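Progress narrative, work stream C.
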Amino acid sequence: MLSFADYAARDALGLAELVRDKQVKATELVDTALAAIEAINPKLNSVASVVPADTLRAGAARLPEGPFTGVPFVLKEIGAHAAGLPFRLGSRLAEGLSLPHDTELMSRFRRAGLQCIGTTPTPEFGFCVTSEAVFHGPTRNPWNTELSPGGSSGGAAASVAAGIVPIAHATDGGGSIRIPASCCGLVGLKPTRGRVPAGPDAGEPLSGLAVELGLTRTVRDTAALLDAVAGPDAGAQNFAPPPAQPYLEQIRRPPKRLRIAWNAKAPSGVAVDPAVLRGLHETVKLCGELGHDLVEDAPAFEWEPYLRATTDIWTANLAVNIDGVAAALGREASEANLEACTWACYRAGKAVTAAQFIAALAHYNSVCRPVGQFFERYDVLLSPVAALPELRLGALNQNAKGIDALAWARQLFDYAPFTSLFNATGQPAISLPLAWADGQPVGMQFAGRFAEEGTLLRLAAQLEEARPWAARRPRVHLAAA
């Protein structure tokens, strides 16, 4: 078994290289990862279930050859699922739920050589920017255990930041990859809509808003993961055009001189904390020093009608998903098995008419057009991820009484007002840990043109080289265990 320090010092590609060079066995990495869960999970509650050790060791002996052969990772309990593993969506309603088949994305994770050692918790039905489900209890941030690791991929982010695994599955329907990346000091790429397969159980999850990939500590791991899983599956309704060359190859050369717009003003009008603004201005300065052209600008759209359209789309999808889980388990959705805000959103979603839903999608189209025109003038848009440098546990309570669906959505976006636009437009966006406030990471978001993840990843690699972050360690970390 590798020492905790040696295991946690390497990214996913680094661990795979040890296995490929026969310096360690995949079974040793399994044993180290399981020991890491025992050492760290009681402090963070970032792993929700663990695959039995005997099952993992048997699987490690027959792994396929791939870029991540032997590397342990964890699967979020929403989005992609693995045959027989818990898929509880952070909800008491879904307790005991598992499915008998892998999704296509899970199959691709396996073909890449990743070893799924367990699952991570999520807020109920992923409908929150913090990870504090009644069902799982709060997941804690390894940088400060009084803070949230973000959501909805908070368990994934905390597990990677603390060194339990170097890579974790994550999903993003409004910022759920980028927000936890910001909170936990990680690389979090939301791919272009249609880049990563959602089948066979879904065509366009969350009516095209949600996509999946993962959270990592290094840009190269993110690039290699996207290479491993990208591309349509059989019967996909649509898909993003493939890149000219693999992303891992693209990041080996610096980006061209980019025209980067930067924006310090939240589209909702909510105030952005001075510490976040300092980080943004430092990032603007860094990009300029690297030779890029920076212009203060932002796409224009009206926030309130956008928020109402988003709430209709989210809650209608939530209602369908809740009814599906209830029917599969022979249960009835109620206030007894759903958190108060989830119940309010479920009821709101049941009341959304077909005409309202189509109108909401039509409003998204009216937003996408000026945003697309904006990106004809700029290669990249730089902004913060969140309006605040930290999120305390309990600050956003999905089980609070008396909050209606629109008020709940407003609370979520008051914290993270910059992320959801690119779920609506389908464009790629990445959070990078380029700023810090009182020892806490603060992510900066870079959004790019549709299907141009390569531009973002090349810029990210350039920024990573200029301001390395992977060696920074949170207070709760495996190397110190």
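Work stream C, second folded protein:
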Amino acid sequence: MRIAHIGSKGIPSKGGTERVVEAVATRHARRHQVTVYGSARVCSPGIHRGVRVLAIQAPAAKHLGPVILELRAALHALVRARYDVVHVHASENGFIVPLLRLRYPVVTTNHGPAYEREKWGAVAQRLIRANERFSVKWATIATAVAANQAQALSERYRWPVEHVPNGVAREPVDNVAAAHILEAANVRSGEYLLFAAARVDPTKGCHTLLEALSLLDDPLPLLVVGDLYHAPGYEERLRELAQGLPVTFVPRLDEKAALLGLLKQCRAFVFPSTVEAMSMMLLEALSTGAVTLASDIPENTAVLPPEFLTFRADDPDDLRRQLVMLLGKDEIYRSGFRDCAAEWVRSRYDWDDIAEQYEALYRRATRW
């Protein structure tokens, strides 16, 4: 088949939706012709692991830039290319689905309710939500990465939305790069807490973790990894909360092997988000065997083994209580925790299996 992916910033991936696109596209490229459209500001044209990458020019403007990028990608697919199926990612890109349906079967994937992210204003949130309808109702086959969101979308639009989860794979771990980061932060392996997100906005809950840390009598050092610049004033709020605490802010790590090294060596990984779809960060933390404490939103609890501790989202005091309980566990418990976490996600969320699910959907959509 000739397959195109539209709706990501391109590959190689640096996080989020791009990781999903890269994982699926590179596996399909072993036996199909696969093209990924992306932004020329992020990716370069060429071949990446068997996938053709097309870099589309678009302005850097926060609101208009993504619209122009996806519209130009859709027009290129319609006028200058030939595919059997187009896969559109992210419901905010639903506005291009009716255009693509003029020529192609379209599979869509909802990667979470972007209109709930606090970085968007009220008008942008309404426009994004309007695009959600297009991504469901106009798709040949619509999917969502979270089971509860697939059900909610099906009920909201009275249209079937299938659940296809995100996945993990065994990937290299760079303990040397991680050790350099720990040395620069003056932190020792196994004796720190870790928070990580590609884009640290309020919905990721870092402020909740800092507030909980301030309630501890003897807090462990905390590494906060990720870009802090995605919501006006949020960086200043985090740095103010971190004053007097053993917190080190680390810029976003585009080399995933280094981030996996930090995950393997942390005392605990804390994931306090209030809005998610199916977090790649959470899946990867569990796959490394990191001792993980996550908020209790349904998108997180659906991924965690049932016996794992959680805390009430956006509740610093409950996070403090659960963190004290978790850190008090002995090494036998922690070792079992690591093994259980890794086995749990690898047996349920394997990228090879998930790529086969998408291929089956492409064949249904095209009647191949």
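The chain has a mean pLDDT of 93. No further action is required on this item.
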